[in-house]
């Protein structure tokens, strides 16, 4: 049996310490489930800037192509606030998405029963919440041309960005959303701003076409982005799968995550297109950032990173039962009362990053 | 004394019925406060489409220029879902903003003590919330060129919109925000997505410059739009004044409003630039939409429209004490237990649109 080839990119801030906990899970899988992993580690973000002067090297992109999947920590460091626009740490993740064609970002926003009280929303509003946001990640205003800042004849400036979506870009991400919905509650809500933006009008038309042609069994609705932000706060459980563009997805998925009250718990997957050889590039990362304020203290919550790895097992390696086991172990450890600082509550036992990691492996 | 010239544009859905209640307040001001009003009413949105085949006529724009202020209801009607992009009811408000140069949309998000429980957020998180969002409304991706949908050689399509901001557009809205902050808690948070968009980078630079040059006494912070959506849910009371572009402002101001649990209570003002003759075009509208589902039933909440009129007195006519009186009357009526359906709670007295309007005038 071939070893699983993983590229591990811990990045900045708490990235390295939470990624380390995944190492324990990998060791367990090798020992108890007969899997073998071939790990390659490299630098991205501020860590790469410090060592190589760029947020990501071409070599790392090549390694990502060669791997079965990429396990990503997080990038971003206020230390690099002064660098030029093309050198900022975030370029690492943007370039990985674009060069590997990672167009579908899957972001579950799920409320864990044990943590329902940590939300700022009333428990009755969020209990049992389970939304999947599918965000397009290689198009839209993030990558459209023309872009930049130009100086006008009078010395003042003009900043420009361009939102572009083509039929095929919309089709492929819509398909991912409809496919996912079939395995869930079979409902998709497509979000744009078609009352103001023509790109949103095209988005709505194309999603409607894909639905009619290939997924008539799935329930489809449409919502304006501003209304969606409101509905997420008023009645988030009305949603099953949401599908939207890059910029709206950035904002709405962060909003949805926050409803759960436990950002440190939420994983994500970003999937590319199936290649000629049947392989599909994919990257897995927690949705929390690099949290420089608590980095290096051993108090970060490793669960989002561990659940990102569970998504990797599920989507890239088709190891459903191993993924289920890890998710169950996380639930059990929470039920037993262990909590990292970010999700601490009265009467619970407060633990650090590695004790949480160990507890999850022990539970396995 | 010259009469106050108002252009009244009730629009669609519940617009006409809530605007009608403002009529009572105007009558009271004429009788008790010695003011005289000269009202002109006209059609916009679906109502104008039905009568004239366009969402707004040039004549209405001219009347808006001639007026001291515009009192707007709301536009939007699912009946007109099929019309072409340039004829949709929303064009009425977009055109008024653009043609009158109404660049600064002021949207307070305030929690009324009597209604703190109607939020889906925990009372402890939103009690006393009082944010002012200043949204730029004549620039950004709403109006940038090129825009549209083009057909590619292979028959597929491409939708395009352009985000553009110039130094002067950013300066003038930043000034409005800093000025407002001085009359409040003296703090401004500027929101963009400068880690991905150059237009956001320029936004941040210009706001920083305006601050350093003219408002060093105001506290300024910067936040990414995705993080801002999260912070609004996690800890909304950290904010005083938020200033942001058209698209982010659309989403974030709706989000902020929803935190209050009472959309039917929230007014807005949209201000233009001072003209050579000292006049300043301005439009006042509730932030709730046309709510076609409850239109014509006499159950809509008229308070947001009435408070929009109070903002008109305050910002366009400098009638501070009259504005204060109306705001106080609204608080008192709520404290006395009257509620329209949207804010109904146990033990309160449920009333319709006109009983609520009458009660507020009686309180005056
Ligand atoms: C780091 C940043 C460029 C990124 C984005 O805006 O896409 C992040 O916010 C995310 O959501 O993954
Ligand atoms: C009606 C619509 C065009 C408008 C907008 O998107 O600006 C509305 O949502 C608003 O916020 O005033």
Topology:
The structure is a homodimer of 364-residue chains.
Chain A: E1 4-11, H1 15-32, E2 37-41, H2 46-52, H3 58-66, E3 69-74, H4 91-99, E4 104-110, H5 123-126, E5 130-136, E6 144-151, E7 157-166, H6 167-182, E8 187-192, H7 198-214, E9 219-224, H8 225-234, E10 241-244, H9 246-259, E11 267-271, E12 282-286, H10 303-315, H11 320-335, E13 338-339, E14 349-350, H12 353-363
Parallel strand pairs in A: 1-2, 1-3, 3-12, 5-10, 8-9, 8-10, 13-14
Antiparallel strand pairs in A: 4-5, 4-11, 6-7, 11-12
Helix pairs in contact in A: 1-10, 1-12, 6-7, 8-9, 10-11, 11-12
Bound molecules: 3-isopropylmalic acid (2 copies).
Beginning-to-end CA distance, first to last residue of chain A: 23 Å
Helix-strand string of chain A: EHEHHEHEHEEEHEHEHEHEEHHEEH
* Count of distinct strands of chain A: 14
Count every helix of chain A, treating DSSP H or I runs of 4 or more residues as helices.
Answer: 12
For the largest interface in this structure, which chains are involved and how many residues does each contribute? A-B, 58 and 58 residues
> Would you identify the CATH architecture of the largest domain in chain A?
3-Layer(aba) Sandwich
Report the average pLDDT across residues of chain A.
96
CATH class of the largest domain in chain A: Alpha Beta
Proportion of residues in extended strands of chain A: 15-25%
Percent range for helical residues of chain A? Answer: 25-40%
Quaternary class: homodimer
Bound molecules: 3-isopropylmalic acid
User: What is the CATH superfamily label of the largest domain in chain A?
Assistant: Isopropylmalate Dehydrogenase
């Amino acid at each position: 049996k071939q070893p699983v080839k993983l590229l591990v990119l811990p990045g900045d801030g708490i990235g390295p310490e939470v990624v380390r906990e995944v190492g324990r899970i990998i060791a367990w899988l090798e020992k108890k489930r007969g899997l073998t992993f071939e790990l390659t580690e490299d630098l991205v973000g501020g860590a790469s800037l410090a060592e190589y002067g760029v947020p990501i090297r071409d070599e790392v992109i090549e390694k990502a192509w060669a791997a079965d999947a990429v396990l990503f920590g997080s990038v971003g460091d206020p230390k690099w606030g002064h660098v030029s626009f093309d050198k900022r740490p975030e370029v690492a993740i943007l370039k990985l998405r674009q060069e590997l064609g990672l167009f579908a970002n899957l972001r579950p926003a799920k409320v864990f029963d044990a943590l329902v009280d940590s939300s700022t929303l009333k428990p009755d509003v969020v209990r049992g919440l389970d939304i999947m946001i599918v965000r397009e990640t290689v198009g839209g205003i993030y990558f459209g041309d023309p872009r930049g800042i130009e100086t006008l004849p009078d010395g003042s400036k003009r900043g420009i960005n361009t939102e572009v979506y083509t039929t095929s870009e919309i089709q492929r991400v819509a398909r991912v959303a409809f496919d996912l919905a079939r395995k869930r509650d079979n409902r998709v809500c497509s979000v744009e701003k078609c009352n103001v933006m023509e790109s949103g009008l095209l988005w709505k038309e194309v999603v409607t076409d894909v639905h009619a042609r290939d997924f008539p069994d799935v329930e489809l609705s449409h919502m304006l982005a501003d209304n969606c932000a409101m509905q997420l706060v008023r009645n988030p459980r009305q949603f099953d799968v949401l599908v939207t563009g890059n910029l709206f997805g950035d904002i709405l998925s962060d909003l949805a995550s926050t409803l759960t009250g436990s950002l440190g718990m939420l994983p994500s997957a970003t999937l590319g297109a199936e290649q000629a050889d049947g392989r599909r590039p994919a990257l897995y990362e927690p949705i929390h950032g690099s949290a420089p304020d608590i980095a290096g203290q051993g108090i970060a919550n490793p669960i989002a990173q561990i659940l990102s790895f569970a998504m990797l097992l599920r989507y890239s390696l088709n190891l459903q039962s191993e993924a289920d086991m890890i998710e169950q172990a996380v639930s059990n450890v929470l039920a037993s009362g262990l909590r990292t600082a970010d999700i601490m509550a009265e009467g619970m036992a407060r633990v650090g990053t590695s004790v949480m990691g160990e507890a999850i492996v022990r539970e396995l």
